[in-house]
Amino acid sequence: MIHKPLQSIAAMCGGALTRKQDEEVMIQGVCTDSRKILKGCLYVPLVGERFDGHDFAVQALAEDAGAILWQEDHGTPPDGPVILVKDTLVALQTLAASYLEQSGVKVVGITGSNGKTTVKDMITALLETKYKVHKTQGNFNNQIGLPLTVLDMPEETDIIVLEMGMSGRYEIELLSSIARPDAAVITNIGESHLLQLGSREEIARAKVEIISGMKPGGLLIYHGDEPLIPMVLAESETKQPDDLKTFTFGMKEGNDDYPTGLMFHAKGIIFTSHRHSGEGFSMPLLGRHNVVNALAALAVAEHFGVNDEQIREGLSGLRLTSMRIECIETEHGVTVLNDAYNASPVSVKAALDVLGDMKGYHRRIAVLGDMLELGPQEEEFHAEIGRYVSPDNVDMVFTYGPLSMHIAEAAKANLPEGQVIAFTEKAAMIEAIIKEVTNKDVVLVKASRGMKLEDVVEALKSLHDRTSM
Which is nearest to 192 in space by CA: 299, 305, 111? Predict the structure, then answer.
C-alpha cells in the first residue's frame, strides 16, 4: 500500500498542508471508513447525500490515523496533520492516479456487461505465474473502490488488474482516466443497465469508454462476436489513444482467437484455440462461455510475455470469486451449480448451456429468479429465457419472482406438463425444491443478486441434515 511522507501525499493529491511541522509524517495506507482506521493511515472523509465523513475526522485522528484530508467548504479543520483540498473524492482519485504513475506498474482494465470478475480472476491467475500482481477485490470497481484498490497496491507490484463497473455514461471514462490502462478487455455487451442507458448501443458506448484514458499504443481486447463494439470504435465521438491496437476473441472463426476444440468433463473443460493449435488447455470451470472468457485472459497474458506452459499452470489452478458457477457437491449427492451472484439474459442463457452440458445426471433442474434493471423490455427478456429453455438443456424449472412468471409461461411450451413451476414466495419454492430433488440430480441456481437465491443453495447444502432428522 502507499507509504509516503505527508508532504508527498499533499503534492500527489493536489492539496496543501495546514501545518509545516507535519511534512515528514509518514502515511501508510488510505481509509474512507472511520470504523476501520489503521495506525498511520490517511483518513479521507467522503461526502454523500446522507452522510459526511468530516463528522468523524477528529475521532479518526484520536484513533491514530496519520493524517486526514479536509474539504475547504467545511470550515476550519481540526488541529493535527491535515491536508486541505477542494474536494475529498477528487483528491482521493488524484492521489490514486499519481501513485499509479509514479509506481510505473503496468495496468490492465476490464469491463463488460457479464464476466468481468471471472476474466479478472483468470487474468490474475495467468499473470501471477510470472509477475507480482494486484487485483480488484470484491466489488471495489467504482469511483471510490478503484482508487482504494490502487492505493492498497503493494509497492513491489508489477501489474495491477482493475475491474471497472458503471451504472451510466462517463463513469468508466473517469475510471480510465485514473488507471490509464496499458491493456483493456471488454468481455461483452449485454442488457444490464438498459434501465439507465436505454439501449445496447449506449451500453456499448459506456463500455468502450475504457480506452479513453488508455496510454498511447495500448491494446484493446474485445469480444469480436459483438458488432456494436467496432461500430462505437468507428464513431468520431469516441475518445481513443494514439496508435490503438486491437485483438478480438469469441466463438466465431473471424476473430483473432476462437475455440477449435472443446471437451467437457465433470469438473471442467479442455479446449484448444486458433492461436494455440497444439496441446489443449485444461481448467476447472464449467461452461463454453468460460472458454471465451479464457481466450480474453490468454490474450492479456501473451501481451505481457506469459508463455503457454505458464498459461497451463495458471488455468489448472484457477479459483474464481464465489457464486459464479461454483460447483458444489452436497453430502446428499446433489450437485449444485451456484451462480446466484447476478443475472442478465446473456448470462442466464450461458448458465443454461452449462446445465445442458452436464451429462450423466438423473435430472437437470434450473432454479431461476428475476433479472433486475432491464428497463421497459424486462418482461420480454424474461419470456426470451423461457423460450430458450428446452429438453436439451433442462428437465425441470422452478422460478421465483414476478418477472420470472414470464420465464415459466414461455418454458411451459417446451417442457412436459408439470415440469415448470412458478413461485412468488421464496420459502414455498425452497420447500418444493427440497421435496423434489433426489440423489444424482444437478441443480442450477441463477438470478440477480437482489433475489438472494443463495438461500436456495444453503438449503440444498444442508439437505443431508434435513433428510436425516
Answer: 111
Cα distance between residue 354 and residue 388, in whole Å: 13
pLDDT, averaged in runs of 10, over the chain (469 residues): 97 96 96 94 94 94 96 94 98 98 97 91 97 92 96 97 93 98 95 78 96 98 96 97 97 95 80 86 87 96 96 88 73 88 88 88 95 90 97 96 97 96 96 93 93 94 55
Asked if residue 289 lies in contact with residue 115, where contact means CB atoms within 8 angstroms, the answer is yes
* 271, 272, 278, 280 alpha-carbon torsion, rounded to 10°: -10
CA-based nearest residue to 251, from 228, 273, 275: 273
The three three-digit cell numbers of residue 90, written as one number: 477528487
What are the start and end residues of each CATH 3.90.190.20 domain in the chain? 326-467
State the Cα angle at 232 between 240 and 324, rounded to 5°: 95
Query: Distance from first CA to last CA of the chain, Å, rounded?
Result: 50
Give the contacts of 271 (CB within 8 A, at least 6 positions apart). Answer: 259, 261, 262, 263, 280, 281, 291, 294
Q: Does domain 3-89 have CATH number 3.40.1390.10?
A: yes
Residue at 285: amino acid letter: L
- The CATH class for the domain spanning 326-467 reads alpha beta
Q: Which uninterrupted H or E stretch holds 272?
A: strand 268-273
List 442's β-bridge partners, or say none.
Answer: 335, 364
CA dist., res. 90 & res. 2, Å (int): 17
Nearest to 283 by CA among 272, 274, 334, 338: 272
CB distance 334 to 159 below 8 Å? no
- Tell me the C-alpha to C-alpha distance, in Å, between residue 240 and each of 180, 220, 221, 256, 296: 12, 10, 14, 21, 20
Q: Which residues contact 136 (CB under 8 A, 6 or more apart)?
A: 120, 145, 146, 149, 161, 162, 163
DSSP secondary structure letters along 33-82: -GGG--TTPEE---B-SS-BGGGGHHHHHHTT-SEEEEEGGG-SPPSSSE
C-alpha cell at 186: 471488454
Q: Is 323 exposed, middle or buried (0-12, 13-18, 19+ CB in 10 A)?
A: middle
Largest CA distance in the chain: 79
Residues 116, 128: Cα–Cα separation, whole Å: 18
In the chain, which segments carry CATH 3.40.1190.10? 104-316
pTM for the predicted model, two decimal places: 0.80
Residue range 104-316 in CATH 3.40.1400.10: no
Cell of 206: 459506456
- Spacing of C-alpha 165 from chain mean position: 7
